[in-house]
Amino acid sequence: MAIIKIDGLKKSFGQNEVLKNITFSVEKNEVVAVIGPSGSGKSTMLRSLVHLEEINGGSIKIGGAYLAENGKYPKAKEIQKITAKTGMVFQHFNLFPHFSVRENLEMAPKLVKKMAKADLHRMSDDYLLKVGLSDKADAMPGSLSGGQKQRVAIARALMMRPEVLLFDEPTSALDPELTGEVLNVMKDLAKDDMTMIVVTHEMGFAKEVADRVVFMDGGEIVEQGTPAQIFDNPQHPRTQAFLSKNYQ
Amino acid sequence: MSFEYFISILKPMLTGAQMTLLLFFITIVVSVPLGFVVMLAQKSAFKPLSWLAHTFVYVMRGTPLLLQLIVVCFGLPVLPGIGEYLVLDRFTAASIAFILNYAAYFAEIFRGGVLAIDKGQYEAARVLGLNKFQTLIKIVIPQMFRIALPSLANESITLMKDTALIYAVAVPELLHYAQTAVNRDLNFFPFVVAGAIYLLLTAILTFIFKLLERKFSFE
């Protein structure tokens, strides 16, 4: 069953049409990598799934409920209910600098879900262990490396128990030697059957981990398929041109 | 110059310094929260409120504090019709002028603090499901406060020295007693004592704000 269904998505910033007519869906437990040149609309598409961007036309259905139907949004409360099914990991981590790592993890479930302190603690311990940062629970984000920050951000997103986790270029702001630790955490999540949409420039990761690769250019989906199809035998000339520049 | 003379001028000046400190604390305690409220009003989506707050800040920053002080002390009581209800004792009137003036400056400092918060912070808060109020309390205010601290420190030091302006409406404070002693004794020394007391007060302030900055650092 498709957990995310996008149909005829349109989005403009003024005169600039960034998403022209995006239609695709994501199955439960699927890992989808979205690749493409800068300005192709990848991030905007991803951000529209958590309502950080409002679309101008088309529909978004998440877990069977419409986040937007023919460009129209329901009431704020309903939006909140639907976007609660999705979590997001940002390029620049966006950790809260004035909270410790543990507080970063526990604040939202405490405020939004009113979870009990003991449960919160157990859960944050679990997720910190999962991302390999058990010893950093009391550290402040400012004292962490970029890779550690991003792993905290992933744990923070997981604390809300999302059905789908969205990654917006999660390793683009990292030093090359730090991308591995973040990608490894994401691989573990894929193994645990987390549904993920990953906007990325890491072709190696897309090829190795994704079930499906979507190539976007100029606000459209140009081509999609299995990693083998896209990387070894791309059909569209734009895909071929992009990969020849970005993938050996 | 004898030690006895020093003590004899120091005593009234310390009394004056109490008045200086009282005005300082009243102004800080009221104008910091008021400034925050004015900043929120400036950012309000309700246009008349936002316009009112912006006008308030413009007028308060655009006219001299001395003028505002004199208006509240001597101007309001001569307003036709309502003037007789606006006769306040000098110190109260002075406090009101200081509070309004400094609230405007603090509002601008807080506005700068809010502007400096990365927009990714709001996006993270939203994606995690925090509502606007929770985002304000948990994310915006703590970060705004930390960013604003150096400017708040600067403004507080200015306030400590600005208290000397109430000399103009004849509220006896530190400078008043220094001037009295200088005139009476034809001696420059009381001004030196006054300057030293101001320096001591601002040094204490600087120290307190340094502690606050360390306490609220994000490390």
Automatic annotation (TrEMBL), chain A:
It comes from Kurthia zopfii. Keywords: Amino-acid transport, ATP-binding, Cell membrane, Membrane, Nucleotide-binding, Transport. Residues 4-243 form the ABC transporter domain. It holds the Pfam family ABC_tran. One of its GO terms (cellular component) is plasma membrane. PANTHER family: AMINO ACID IMPORT ATP-BINDING PROTEIN, GLUTAMATE_ASPARTATE IMPORT ATP-BINDING PROTEIN GLTL. Gene3D superfamilies: P-loop containing nucleotide triphosphate hydrolases (3.40.50.300). This is Amino acid ABC transporter ATP-binding protein (PAAT family).
UniProtKB/TrEMBL annotation, chain B:
It is a multi-pass membrane protein. Signal peptide: none annotated. It is found in: Cell membrane. One of its GO terms (biological process) is amino acid transport. Keywords: Amino-acid transport, Cell membrane, Membrane, Transmembrane, Transmembrane helix, Transport. The chain crosses the membrane at residues 20-41, 62-79, 188-212. Belongs to the binding-protein-dependent transport system permease family. PANTHER family: L-CYSTINE TRANSPORT SYSTEM PERMEASE PROTEIN TCYL, MEMBRANE COMPONENT OF AMINO ACID ABC TRANSPORTER. This is Amino acid ABC transporter membrane protein (PAAT family). It comes from Kurthia zopfii.
